[in-house]
């Protein structure tokens, strides 16, 4: 037996032109249904996210003074100190 005897071609199109057209229409219908279902699922996820965000209570912020200054103690380190640390 040759290796070609066991070749499977599962994606064979029907030979009848009416069956070919019917298969194409069924494929387009399945594609359309999947598109509509995907759009509804996406819209439901967005809506659920908005509802959850709006329904959450935000914690009250503590009143902090508005300063543009960061306080701290700084020290300038020379290059020689940096190379000795390695």
What would your notes on this structure say?
This protein is mainly α and 86 residues long. The chain has a domain at 15-55. Helices cover 52% and strands 0% of the residues. It is built from 2 helices and no strands. The protein has helices at residues 17-55, 79-84. The protein is elongated, with a radius of gyration of 34 Å.
Ends distance: 73 Å
Overall SS class: mainly alpha
Number of E-type strands: 0
Overall 3D form:
elongated
Oligomer: single chain
Brief synopsis:
The protein is mostly helical and 86 residues long.
Supply database-style keywords.
86 residues, mainly alpha, 52% helix, elongated
Topology readout:
Elements: H1 17-55, H2 79-84
């Amino acid at each position: 037996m040759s290796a070609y005897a066991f070749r499977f071609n599962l994606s064979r199109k029907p030979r009848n032109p009416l069956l070919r057209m019917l298969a194409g229409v069924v494929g387009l219908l399945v594609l359309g249904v999947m598109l509509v279902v995907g759009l509804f699922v996406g819209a439901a996820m967005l809506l659920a996210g908005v509802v959850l965000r709006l329904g959450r209570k935000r914690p009250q912020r503590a009143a902090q003074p508005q300063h543009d200054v960061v306080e701290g103690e700084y020290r300038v380190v020379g290059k020689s100190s940096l190379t000795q640390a390695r």
